Input
Amino acid sequence: MRSVAFLGLAAVGTADVPGSTKINDENLIAEYNSRNGATWVAGPNKFFDGMTFDDARPLLGTILTNNTVKVDAFVALGDVPSEFDARTQWPGLIHPIRNQEQCGSCWAFSASEVMSDRVAIASGIASPVLSPEDMVSCDESDNACKGGSLPNAWDYIENTGLLTDACFPYTAGSGQAPACETACVDGTAFIRTKAANVYPVTGVANVQTDLMTNGPIQVAYMVYKSFMSYQSGVYSKLSYETQAEGGHAVKLVGWGTDSGTDYWLVANSWSTEWGENGFFKIKRGSDECGIETMGPPYAGLPAAATTVVV
Output
């Protein structure tokens, strides 16, 4: 059984940092960097220029699910390496960082990016970027710029499939989703790419095994105020942060260890002007911010053939 909380709309700021505070406030960033034993560095990010925490909260549009579904363990591949990066494992096949802009569409971005990568990996050939707008505008089981869930997103990819980004480009960045398209804006064939099957991935070892075998995985987690100021290092929330701002979904691409701290390597959708050129590291193995359970981690395998919609 699943219990669901739509944190992206209901969460409020912590008492000590009002929601009206600017995210790039110099004093706030200095406070983050004053902590003893910190494993990460805070700083201003251009993505949040001029924005308050109240402004940013609607961007966190993922429904977080406490998942109790059990799946069979994946076939063991032997010892898991201490480091793994999908970008070096499959050079030229991992699609670049994107920008969801002012729409709570992270759930659609990360799902479409994972599927894009897995199509390229399965074929061994660089493939077109698949359309997050397709899900934002057409997936009636989710809520467009107001959020969505990982299981629903993957059900859409399995049952309906995704158009390419060139066919249905992203224009919901202002926070308003366009109508669902019935023809490609670039005049190409209206072709959808489907997943053959979709599945949650339970447990750290299974996540690592599936990522090494099939490619990146979609994950979701709780975002606290300090995360928005991440610049480098291995993130973990501050001990006094007890109220999340909302739920966020991203693309997991690898793992490693930095100065003794195990981490996940993750691609965000806040442009290359946030974090480490759009990527971040977050503590691994202790379910930091719920990243190992709260999506739950989700993925799918490409279908053998695409579907032409006429």
In short: Residues 106-123 form the longest helix (18 residues). The first strand starts at residue 3 and ends at 5.
